[in-house]
Amino acid sequence: MLSIRDLRVDYDDFCAVHDLSLEVGPGEVCGLIGPNGAGKTTTMRTILGLIEPTYGEIRILGVGLQEDHELVGRAVGFMPDFPPVYDDLKVWEFLDLFAASYRIPRRARPVVVGRHLEMVGLADKRDATVTGLSRGMKQRMMLAKTLIPDPAVLLLDEPASGVDPQGRIDLKNILKRVAAEGKTVLISSHILAEMNEFCTSVAIMERGRLVVGGRIDEVNRRIMGDMSLSVEILAGLDDFLRIVAEDDHAGLVEARAGGVHEFRYRGDAEAAGDLLARLIEAGVRLSSFSRRKDNLEELFLMVGAKELS
């Protein structure tokens, strides 16, 4: 678990992080979101002990950083946005070097390196030189390096930057795996479309302040005020529109491609179930009726309108 309480970081007369409080629990993937200059990287570097906070408390696995300065090295894996690499090494040599620094025995290192190359989809690049890798491949290699010591807490700064579509799929699967293992993950990014694929919770920063945070569905309800339903209709569109219009919980219906219709819905799950039952009873043929996945871009824009104006 990662816990931050009343964190403030000042650079001379400029406040980079202002009284930030945040908790990320085991198995949680939290997106630290905000525009450039919001304080995301400063927050991560302070967690790592690279920046001295003006005041505040940071606890990792229940232990304060001031109580155990070596805790970060043992428990936290960090992947920076532009990590330094050794261009003249082969990919396996690069990972082997770090595996040795993590005190993994020599005989075990080939298996460990091979497993992590496979995990990030770089097994076929084992013997390639680092200098020949694309930016996205270097990001995946650095993710493999970060995972080698099996850290309990992962801090990833813009991990999907420059990564191709297959790399994003691999990253999504890796994050699901480490979350299922009970690890704590904090991801910083300003690219909301990428974060929407990875995160279970969100912390939105602006000008050094946390403006809203929590699980995505909870934050969405608090900010957006309701859910969004997505319905794919095969037949009976007129009846569908009539029944939805008669429901006091339903908002304006918007047509999407492929017979899909979406609308905001202020009722709870039971009310949505009753709506579905009325549609079926009226003979409306549906191929899907589901809550649309919360969109971080919409949420971020709504937070900006409500919290920052």
Walkthrough of the structure:
Helix content is 37%, strand content 28%. The chain is an alpha/beta fold and 309 residues long. The chain folds into two domains: 2-215, Rossmann fold, CATH 3.40.50.300; 227-293, Alpha-Beta Plaits (2-Layer Sandwich). Strands 6-7-8-3-9-10 form a six-stranded mixed beta sheet, sandwiched between helices. Strands 2-1-4-5 form a four-stranded antiparallel beta sheet. Helix 3 packs across helix 4. The longest helix is centred in the middle third of the chain and has 16 residues, at 165-180. The protein is globular, with a radius of gyration of 23 Å. The two termini are 33 Å apart.
Apparent shape: globular
Number of helices: 11
Write the CATH fold name of the largest domain.
Answer: Rossmann fold
Oligomeric status: single chain
The order of strands across the largest sheet is: 6-7-8-3-9-10
Number of domains as seen in the coordinates: 2
List the secondary-structure elements in sequence, H or E.
Answer: EEEHEEHEHHHEHEHEEHEHEEHEH
What is the CA-based Rg, rounded? 23 Å
Q: How helix-rich are the residues, as a percent range?
A: 25-40%
Strand content: 25-35%
| Low-confidence segments | 305-309
CATH class membership of the largest domain: Alpha Beta
CATH architecture of the largest domain: 3-Layer(aba) Sandwich
Distance between the termini: 33 Å
> Taking all residues together, what is the mean pLDDT?
86
